Amino acid sequence: MRPLRSGLPLDPLGSVIAILIGVALLAAPFVTYRANRIVSGEGRMLAEALPVLVAAAVFAVAFGAGLAAALIRNPLARLAAALVGLAAIFPAVGLSAVFLTPSGNSFARISPSVGFWLLTLSFALLAADSLTRLRLGPWARLAALATAFGAVALLLLSGAWDGLSILKEYATRSDSFWREARQHLFLALGSLAAACLVGLPLGMLCHRVRALRAGILQALNVIQTIPSIALFGLLMVPLGTLAAASPLAAGLGIRGIGAAPALLALFLYSLLPIVANTVLGLNQVPAVVVDAARGMGLSARQRLVQIEIPLSLPIILAGIRIVLVQNLGLATVAALIGGGGFGTFVFQGIGQSAIDLVLLGAIPTVALSFAAAIILDAATELAKGSA
Amino acid sequence: MIEIEHLTRRYGSTVVVDDVSLRVEEGAIAVVVGTSGAGKSTLLRMINRLVEPSAGRVLIDGQDTRTVPEDELRHRIGYVIQGYGLFPHRTVAENIATVPRLLGWGSKRIAARVNELLDLFQLDPAEFARKFPHQLSGGQQQRVGVARALAARPALLLMDEPFGALDAVIRAKAQEDLLAIQRRLGTTIVLVTHDMNEAFQLGDRIAVMDQARLLQYATPTELLTRPAEDFVERLVGTVERPFRLLSLTGVQAALEPGGAEGEPIALSDNLQNALSQLVWSGRESLPVADPNGVIVGRISVGGILAHGRPPA
Amino acid sequence: MSAFSILTRGLALFMLAVFIFAPQLFAFAFEPLTANNAPAIYNQGSLLSLTLSHLRIVVGATLASTVVAVALGIFVTRPAGLDFLPLSRSLVNVGQTFPPIAVLAIAVPLVGFGEKPTFIALFLYGLLPIFENTLSGLTQVSPLTLEAAKGMGMSPRQRLFQIELPLALPVILTGIRLSVIISLGTATIGSTVAAKGLGEVIIAGLQSNNVAFILQGGLVVALLAVLIHDGLSVAERAVARRLGRPADETT
Ligand SMILES: Nc1ncnc2c1ncn2[C@@H]1O[C@H](COP(=O)(O)OP(=O)(O)O)[C@@H](O)[C@H]1O
Ligand SMILES: [Mg+2]
Predict the structure, then answer these.
(1) Domains of chain A in sequence order
(2) Chain C residues with CB-CB distance to A under 8 A?
(3) Do C189 and A365 touch (CB under 8 A)?
(4) Contact C109 A325 (CB under 8 A)
(5) What is the ipTM of this complex?
(6) For ion ligand 2, residues whose CB falls within 5 Å
(7) CATH of domain B2-237
């Protein structure tokens, strides 16, 4: 039991969030204005970044949401406050880009600044805390994810953010953006699929043949330990040699640099979680259940398909979740060896000191990983429920 | 001496311990029995203030426990729980040394005390001092748990189902050992159990609890012969009642002058055992011998049976 | 560990040390990979100093992460911090979906090129596994053990330092190992933002199309990571043994 406290019943976490909001509103620039793409920018406070009435409205809404965070403990009400806050600042930052760009000037760049990011962080924290406390079921979490993505998609399609510099970066390379997106997904999902095809049977084999288990898991463990660029580099040499020696391999697109070593490295990284979790999953199937199935005359194959795999599915799915999130992140590094993907923008951006370009690559990567984690967590939970 | 006065504990609107008062004399063992959920553990934990009372107070040797800082109070009270809670990362010796160390004893004094306790509990220091808890059997863990609680020579020992995790044979031995050690050290003990046999074997006085209330607090004999409520009567067991009563009475009480044939019964034994020997040997009476083997009289079936019923 | 694995590890360590101190001895092995008379051994800096600065940044960042993450883990498991526990758990979950490279890339515009953004990325990303393991280590201490400690009159502080932290230590060490391994990799990528480290060798190879550079950089980084991982695992097991196997006390 929590001892009753005297005085104002302030929520500790909510108070921290309220302070963050206060700092964001009063002490940090809302957006950054730059005369062109490369020069360093200058901050614009909320009051200067928007028409005065709009600025006042945004200020009031954000301030109110902060107060609600500090004073209200009901998670639904806190969630509502967070969503109202986000609904105010997201369109506002787009509007501010239109407001600040001198008419006819196509060089000026407006990008969200510390204040905006702090506000986003505060409301996201508040929303995340409320959602955690609400203990949503898997379907509700998926619905929440879909709603969030839907809302952002709507903002993007409506053109409300078109004035922001990150979308100007996008506008000048929309073709390559979608090409790299496909490539990114191809690298992450292709290596995952290959790892499942190899890893699941390998895991079952390790489960059956104890003698193999330690050796295989140890070898995979060593591979996991090798940093990504190093592994990419190590694989370039044999693949390059292979391409040089065999026209067939070269004809299949296998070369020392490019997608082939990246795909192979991601595949190798993926094996450990899949094999290890398959072994773990099969191991935790209670021996009595398998024994009972055997007693009822199920064949080894029937036992595997009807009993062992369904019962170990949640753990195997947890392995796949680890792999997918890991691959979506590691695929960014593939760009360094010409493998493409969102990393292309990140590294180009680093090279040109263009933060918007970095964000153009980083934000979709994070969004993808985030969505993958939520979707697979929900799937794991659903599998647990049905197993 | 412990005086519990009108002790009450509420969680929200549910009353878990309801206005319980009782007194435990110096050097006595009080056993609290009752079904699970009766509030026994809560009552016990209010004595060392692991649970703060909602009302009422506890006096130890006349001193209100609320006037002593919590931790200091607990240093002075031994505490043994079911499962023991031995520290898995510390050796047997380090576990036993816990409270002496908290009290800042010198290391020589601690080592001597640890060895003394290990000897007392029949654990060879050379073999056990450096073992970790997971290397011990259940019975050994239990002994270490009690030794640890006694390390700083507390005048009071609280035990919450201390034998609950042991199997029957080891439990009986552990109960005997506890009695022997308690008689030797004179420690006052409050012990919680849901096992009636344990209560009758160990308790100088037994407190029966049900649904947060203390139904009766009395000697074992009183509990059998004058149960305060139907619940107490059912709890002590109508079938076992006569035999429990006999087991609480010494041979002396039914000693008759004269002699008899057969293997003598010890004067220090109880009437239940004497009856058992009579039935088994098929005799009406047997001689009784004092500790020196001198026959001091005899004991008969009829004489014993008179003690197996409540006084008229 | 078997004699064989000790031998292979010892040999790997020896080879790595020789290569780092005197890479020229191995030039013959890398020569076949070069073209147009390109150098076979990295010649834009000493491998030794690159290795040292690589390790320095990893060790520094890990130390900082450990202090902060363990302190945070302790805070959210005390009564005063319990309000932050659910959120901090989900934050760690979300945080780990951020690729380390994204953190690195976003730090550059904020603090400029060099070691700073790398240090920040290593520090931030290194917090997650240590914090997560501190939490699970502290929360998996048996309630029975804590009840006994409290019943014997240990103060909250004594319980934390004498019971909870020692029992959680092996799990915390695992978190530190995970963090170090991730940091070794991220520091390699840090070379793209001009942090001094072994990634430089690989990047230089990629830029000048010199496969020999790529291979030797990859080998050194890979060996270093595998050996450090091994060494930390051994340390973890030793600590777990010294603290007694944390097993269920109830039998
Ligand atoms: N911290 C607590 N909060 C709420 N209820 C509690 C708490 N501790 C104990 N109880 C309730 O008090 C009752 C008595 O518990 P306890 O003293 O442990 O019983 P016993 O030891 O006799 O089995 C039980 O119904 C239990 O659920
Ligand atoms: Mg109890």
Answers:
(1) 12-164 (no CATH), 174-386 (1.10.3720.10)
(2) 33, 83-84, 86-87, 89-91, 93-94, 96-102, 105-106, 108-109, 181, 184-186, 188-189, 192-193, 199, 202-203, 205-206, 211, 214-215, 217-219, 221-222, 225-226, 229
(3) no
(4) no
(5) 0.85
(6) B 41
(7) 3.40.50.300
Q: Helices then strands (H, E): number in chain A?
A: 17, 3
Contacts of A343 in chain C (CB under 8 A): 101
Whether the CB of B45 sits within 6 Å of ligand 1: no
**Nearest protein CA to atom 8 of ligand 1, as residue:** B42
Cβ–ligand 1 distance for B212 under 6 Å, the answer no
Overall average pLDDT of the B100-113 stretch: 95
Question: One-letter amino acid identity for B144?
Answer: V
Chain A partners (3+ C-beta pairs within 8 A): C
Nearest to A368, CA basis, from C101, C125, C97: C97
Looking at domain C47-250, which of 3.40.30.10, 3.30.360.10, 3.40.630.30, 1.10.3720.10 is its CATH number? 1.10.3720.10
List the single best residue of A125, A350, A356, A368 to mutate versus C (max C Cβ within 10 A). A350
Confidence of residue C244 (pLDDT cuts 50, 70, 90): low
CB nearest C221 (choices: A230, A350, A369): A230
- Specify the pTM: 0.87
Ligand closest to CA B162:
2
CA gap B100, A97 in Å, rounded:
70
Q: Which protein residue has the closest C-alpha to ligand 1 atom 26?
A: B37
Take atom 5 of ligand 1 and give the residue whose Cα is closest.
B11
Residues forming beta bridges with residue B34, ordered by sequence position: B209
Q: Which pairing describes strands B14-24 and B63-64: parallel, antiparallel, or unpaired?
A: unpaired
**Token duo for residue A282:** 């099969």
**pLDDT tens digits, one per residue of A299-317:** 888 888 888 999 999 999 9
Domain B244-308 belongs to what architecture?
Alpha-Beta Complex (3.90)
Alpha helices (H) in chain C, listed in sequence order:
3-21, 27-30, 47-76, 85-95, 100-111, 115-139, 143-151, 156-158, 165-189, 199-208, 211-242
